[in-house]
Design a protein that fits this description.
The complex is a heterodimer of chains A (365) and B (239). Chain A has 365 residues and is mostly helical. Chain A has helices at 2-47, 49-76, 83-99, 133-163, 168-190, 215-237, 239-249, 251-256, 261-286, 293-308, 313-332, 341-355; strands spanning 101-102, 110-111, 204-205, 213-214. Chain A has a domain at 60-298. A two-stranded antiparallel sheet of chain A has the order 1-2. Chain A is globular. Chain B is of the alpha/beta class. Chain B has a single domain (9-235), classed as P-loop containing nucleotide triphosphate hydrolases (Rossmann fold, 3-Layer(aba) Sandwich), CATH 3.40.50.300. Chain B is 35% helix and 26% strand. Chain B has helices spanning 47-54, 77-80, 100-107, 115-125, 127-131, 142-154, 172-187, 199-204, 223-228, 230-235; strands at 9-18, 21-31, 36-40, 60-67, 70-71, 85-88, 160-164, 191-195, 208-213, 216-222. Chain B has a 6-stranded mixed sheet, with helices on both faces. In chain B, strands 2-1-4-5 form a 4-stranded antiparallel sheet, covered by helices on one side. In chain B, helix 3 runs parallel beside helix 6 (142-154). The chains are: A mainly alpha (365), B alpha/beta (239). At the A-B interface, helix 7 and helix 8 of A face helix 3 of B.
Chain lengths: 365, 239
């Protein structure tokens, strides 16, 4: 009897001991991870400066979009595989607002007479940018048109599936279907050719110690950071933002507290959708418009959200920057060709989640 | 002769369950305005199901629910909470990624004014929460979480507080603290309907009790009588 008691004590001691060791290992893993990230960033910033800067620029677009994705995942509980195509859709809507051009089933563009570039001086380049105030108006119009479309998709596709008790996998597949439909519509309306917002010359700006940076890229980074700051302020310092985080945390308790979960969900689509839309327009400004680009973007944006800890807005932002920098620096070092950029990003992602399964800022379930 | 006070909560003949399977059938519960009422019963008796059905988390297949005389049958949780009923689930009863203060703000989100005053009131009632209002709720100990969960539910000054096993997975000392809090909350004017596994301790602070078995009312009466009842002692108090 006494032996049995002592055995059980030993067992219990071993068990709590293991738990403690497990926690310590986890802490070491987390610290090692942060140390590796900090070392990589320092090394990349010093020795691979041009790629590092480009990585930050591309990463800021990923970051903005990943914040939208993670909000939609957290609150609306949709793994939104149509996210990349939503970005491109908004970018095309902005393109339509600028030029009024569609192709339809005809050869060559048809231009609607009402478009922003018809406004006086709308396309006169500001500072050294390749665009005028018209593009900024068009981006706002693009976002204003994309948000109701996303709200409608949520209402027609995702909400009914939720009500019928569909799980994550079914919603993810449904969003893949939405993505495909969006892409086909974009192809039908604007054709398969790549397009640009403006044909203006892309001037560069020289900064001491840095490679020449295209002026437009200042606008991209500034807009992405500014919108992220505004979103974070909204999330952490307003009642709606707190309600959004509460709903993401515990939807049943949110209802029990009297939070209007349906309205919170709508606002999440509005805010997340607007971020997605602007990110799409910025990406189109950075590279170009192409109906196929949305799907290509989906993977790095998901990687960013998962790396940062899915559901964590600041994690998604940092994740976006890391994904951008890792991809560019990997190519810059010359070890791989640009086609393998995404593969390196995913190797890093897998390494991170092996060390910290919940992602950098995620909370363990 | 004085008119009898309208009960805080009346549930008449409620039937509810999951999917198509009824878990509770024809259950009736009354909670007076200043009462603490406890539902006890063996595992699987449907105690928690009663609370979830009363609070609109489960559909009411039959029966009526009224709050202070108003019929609230079939209302959704987010509407019921505005009518003066609050619910503290057994688990997942806080917002772990929000701070203590944010949890309380969310508890009072439908208030049009007096949120800060109510938070002060809650902090005065539970000083442990006032110590670190910016602490993330997920970092709190089990007892502190339970305290925060109850505090969140009190933000809307409910007439009736529904507590689903407030002492579950707490140390004996914390159980005493939580039950003492329940008494204090009741003393300040909130009726309490709670479900408890620790039947003896819960009945000791209650005015009345209900015994549920197989999803139906089995016994009811003043808590002291239930504690003294041979059947209750033998079947549900393990004596």
């Amino acid at each position: 009897m006494a032996r049995a008691a002592s055995d059980s004590l030993t067992d219990s001691g071993t068990w709590t001991g293991r738990l403690r060791v497990g926690r310590i290992q986890q802490q070491i893993g987390t610290w090692t991870l942060w140390l590796l990230i900090a070392s990589f960033i320092a090394w990349a910033a010093v020795t691979q400066t041009p790629q590092f800067v480009v990585g930050l620029i591309v990463g800021s677009i990923y970051a903005l979009s990943a914040v939208g994705l993670t909000l939609i995942y957290g609150v609306a509980r949709v793994s939104h595989f149509a996210h990349g195509d939503s970005m491109m859709m908004a970018a095309y809507l902005a393109f339509f607002a600028v030029t009024g051009a569609v192709v339809g089933s005809r050869s060559g563009d048809v231009e609607f007479p009402l478009h922003v570039s018809a406004l006086p001086g709308a396309m006169e380049p500001i500072w050294r940018f390749s665009f005028g105030y018209g593009l900024i108006i068009a981006i706002v119009i693009g976002a204003a048109l994309a948000v109701p479309i996303l709200l409608a998709i949520d209402r027609v596709v995702y909400q009914p599936l939720h009500r019928r008790g569909a799980g994550t996998a079914i919603l993810a597949v449904a969003s893949l279907g939405v993505a495909r439909i969006m892409r086909r519509i974009m192809l039908f309306i604007w054709g398969a050719d790549n397009r640009r917002y403006t044909a203006g010359i892309r001037q560069t700006v020289d900064l001491p110690g840095l490679p020449p940076i295209v002026a437009d890229q200042f606008f991209i980074v500034l807009a992405a950071f500014l919108l992220t700051v505004v979103t974070f302020f909204q999330l952490y310092y307003t009642r709606l933002g707190t309600a959004m985080r509460a709903t993401a945390d515990n939807p049943a308790l949110a209802r029990a507290s009297g939070i209007d979960v349906a309205a919170t969900r709508r606002w999440t689509w509005i805010i997340g959708g607007a971020l997605t839309a602007v990110a799409g327009c910025l990406l189109a400004l950075q590279s170009q418009l192409s109906p196929e680009l949305g799907f290509v973007l989906l993977l790095p944006i998901f990687a960013a959200a998962i790396l940062g800890g899915i559901g964590s807005p600041h994690g998604a932002f940092i994740g976006g920057l890391i994904v951008g920098v890792v991809g560019e620096v990997a190519v810059g070092v010359g070890v791989i060709s640009p086609g393998y950029k995404l593969a390196v990003v995913f190797v890093v992602l897998v390494a991170v989640i092996l060390l910290r399964p919940q992602g950098l800022f995620g909370v363990r379930e | 002769m004085m008119a009898e006070a309208v009960p805080a909560l009346v549930a008449e003949g409620i039937t509810s369950g999951y999917g198509e399977v009824p878990v509770v059938q024809d259950v009736s519960i009354h909670v007076g305005q200043d009462e603490i009422v406890t539902i006890i019963g063996p595992n699987g008796a449907g105690k928690s199901t009663v609370l979830k059905a009363l609070f609109g988390f489960l559909p009411l297949w039959q029966g009526h629910v009224s709050l202070a005389g108003d019929d609230v049958t079939g209302l959704a949780p987010e509407l019921l909470v505005c009518r003066g009923i609050a619910f503290v689930p057994q688990t997942e009863n806080i917002f772990p990624r929000l701070t203590i203060r944010e949890n309380l703000t969310m508890g009072g989100i439908t208030r049009t004014d007096g949120v800060e005053e109510r938070i002060s009131w809650v902090f005065e009632l539970f000083p442990v929460l006032a110590e670190r209002p910016r602490e993330r709720a997920g970092r709190l100990s089990g007892g502190q979480r339970q305290t925060l969960a109850i505090a969140r539910a009190l933000m809307l000054e409910p007439r009736v507080l529904l507590l689903d096993e407030p002492s579950a997975s707490l140390s004996p000392k914390m159980v005493e603290t939580v039950l003492a809090n329940v008494v204090e909350i009741n003393r300040r004017g909130t009726a309490v309907l709670m479900v408890e596994q620790r039947a003896r301790q819960a009945l000791a602070i209650s005015d009345r009790g209900y015994v549920l078995a197989n999803g139906r009312n089995r016994l009811e009466g003043p808590a002291s009588e239930l504690l003294a009842s041979d059947e209750v002692r033998r079947l549900y108090l393990g004596e």
